[in-house]
Specification:
Shape of chain B: flat
Mean pLDDT of chain B: 93
Shape of chain A: elongated
Number of helices of chain A: 21
Largest sheet of chain A: 2 strands, antiparallel
Number of domains of chain A: 3
Oligomer: heterodimer
Distance between the termini of chain A: 54 Å
Number of domains of chain B: 1
CATH architecture of chain B: 2-Layer Sandwich
Helix content of chain A: 55-70%
Order of helices and strands of chain B: EHEEEEHE
Mean pLDDT of chain A: 91
Radius of gyration of chain A: 24 Å
Strand order of the largest sheet of chain B: 2-5-1-6
Order of helices and strands of chain A: HHHHHHHHHHEEHHHHHHHHHHH
């Protein structure tokens, strides 16, 4: 049984339940229960109409739960109201579900959890494992999130930008535990791009595909980090790169530039270089300039300084760096790299040690310590 | 069975025997060290004695309540003289002796010149459950 296919049916099923009058929180529980039953029953008895099966099963679970609860009157109201629900398409339902799960009233961590469960169809246990928190904690987070959006009307127009931020967060968590969050984020973004024509949705999908294409080459066999310039480019997934570039080009052709498209363009330029030395840094700097116009983020300025260092030499990079706040994350790492390229090896080694002390994850800390060690030996 | 916390310090512990900072090691020495630590944890998983391990960032701040409606008071980053915990491993072993043995093995991780660091680790027993049978 293809679990990803099964999970891809869930948004439409949940949408149908909600349109029939089920409240979102109860409908979402019912759909999860139906999913569990499908995983149990389908291998021996595959349904002819999987979606129809899920709708029937979920609706039955919903009625059972409602009957069991004290809300008998409400259930009768719900059933009375059922025929009045107007028709809506699966694509509308799916889109509305993304909006609801990324509703601005939710905190980022709640929106992420709710999206993975209600849109992605992951179990609470899987989500808890992926984020390294106890299952009870994640259950509580999801249940509070459902309450928060409980009064939001399902048919209200939402904001694509908030959805994209949530999907970006999921992708950036990468990989921990049994669930591959990066792959799941790609699946959810792909599903979103199928129901809405929006250049930034395409831009984010392209960005994810282009980064995912390099995944195998990002870690050495001993688990240590391999920087872009040293990656074995023959291990990059050319199929994902081609797909990412194609999606990006179609998005850029719409002439509505956004930050994800600009980031994807930078990733595409890296992907395009057969060897690191042939990277088109001049164009990359131009894209960082575009990105700055869109966001004016200090992190972008920092990355731009690296690109300037490659395009116009380390002195120019250091000059661009000097305009930035030295308390920025990764500032010391960038300074170390540029000083090394400029030939100030002792300064660079000291800065690498400092950067290692400030690293926000172990892989980066080890990598930066290794750079210092390389210069000290 | 009892659980023990093995604490590793960035600073505040007595000096190790082979006390050379990692940025002075060769690449191979770093690789050997990382492999030793990973293998150690993996082996404890297979023996059924591993509970958890985490590493902490190299920064820390004191913080306390400062009264209704006031923002928390902070003091830090920690002064250079302050203990700074680098991380922990929690193990669940049959005896205190076994826990000591494992801690010593962890402390023998190779450092400069591939020689054991002899790093000082702090070992702290967890409180256990009150027993069901008391008389």
């Amino acid at each position: 049984m293809d679990e990803a296919l099964l999970r891809s049916l869930l948004p439409a099923v949940l949408g149908i339940l909600v349109r029939r009058g089920a409240d979102f929180a109860a409908a979402e529980d019912a759909v999860q229960d139906a999913l569990v039953e499908a995983v149990r029953v389908w291998p021996d008895d595959p349904p002819r109409d999987p979606k129809g099966w899920l709708v029937t099963a979920a609706w039955r679970k919903f009625l059972d739960a409602t009957r069991a609860a004290t809300a008998r009157r409400r259930r009768e109201d719900v059933i009375d109201a059922e025929p009045e629900q107007g028709p809506a398409s699966d694509t509308d339902d799916t889109l509305q579900l993304y909006f609801l799960c990324a509703h601005p009233s939710l905190t980022p961590s709640s929106a992420v959890a709710l999206t993975l469960r209600a849109v992605g169809g992951l179990t609470t246990r899987q989500i808890a494992q992926a984020y390294l928190v106890p299952e009870a904690t994640m259950a509580q987070r999801i249940s509070r999130a459902k309450k928060t959006v409980g009064d939001v009307r399902f048919d209200q127009p939402g904001d694509v930008a908030t959805v994209l931020r949530v999907l970006y967060l999921v992708f950036n968590e990468g990989y921990s535990g049994d669930i591959d969050l990066a792959a799941e984020a790609i699946r959810l973004t792909r599903q979103l791009s199928a129901v809405i024509d929006h250049p930034e949705v395409a831009g984010l999908l392209a960005l994810m595909l282009l980064h995912h294409a390099r995944r195998a080459s990002r870690t050495a066999s001993n688990g240590s980090l391999v920087p872009l310039a040293e990656q074995d480019r023959s291990r990059w997934d050319t199929r994902l790169i081609a797909e990412g570039v194609e999606i990006l080009q179609a998005a850029l052709a719409q002439d509505r530039l956004g930050e994800f498209q600009a980031q994807a363009a930078i990733a595409a330029l890296h992907a395009d270089a057969p060897v690191a030395e042939e990277t088109d840094w001049v164009q990359i700097v131009e894209w960082y300039d575009e990105l700055l116009q869109l966001t004016d983020s200090p992190v972008v300025r920092l990355n731009r300084a690296v690109a300037v260092g490659e395009a116009d030499g380390p002195r120019a990079g250091l000059k661009a760096l000097a305009e930035l706040d030295d308390s920025l994350p990764r500032y010391s790492a960038v300074a170390a790299y540029l000083h090394e390229r400029d030939g100030s090896l002792r300064t660079a080694a000291k800065l690498y040690v400092e950067a290692a002390e400030k690293a926000s994850n172990l892989a980066e800390r080890e990598y930066l310590t290794r750079q210092a060690a390389r210069l000290n030996n | 069975m009892a659980k023990y916390l093995l604490l590793k310090h960035y600073r505040g512990a007595p000096a190790a025997v082979n006390d050379v900072p990692m940025d002075q090691w060769t690449q191979d020495e770093i690789t050997a060290h990382v492999k030793y630590m990973n293998d150690f944890a993996d082996r404890l998983r297979t023996t059924g004695e591993f509970v958890d391990e985490r590493a902490l960032a190299q920064e820390g701040t004191w913080v306390r309540y400062d009264g209704e409606g006031r923002p928390p008071v902070t003091d830090g980053p920690f002064a250079e003289t302050k203990d700074l915990i680098a991380g922990w491993m929690i193990i669940d072993t049959d005896s205190y002796e076994r826990a000591l043995e494992l801690a010593a093995e962890l402390s023998a991780a190779p450092g400069k010149d591939g020689k054991p660091i002899h790093e000082w680790l702090e070992i702290r027993p967890f409180y256990g459950h009150a027993p069901t049978i008391t008389e």
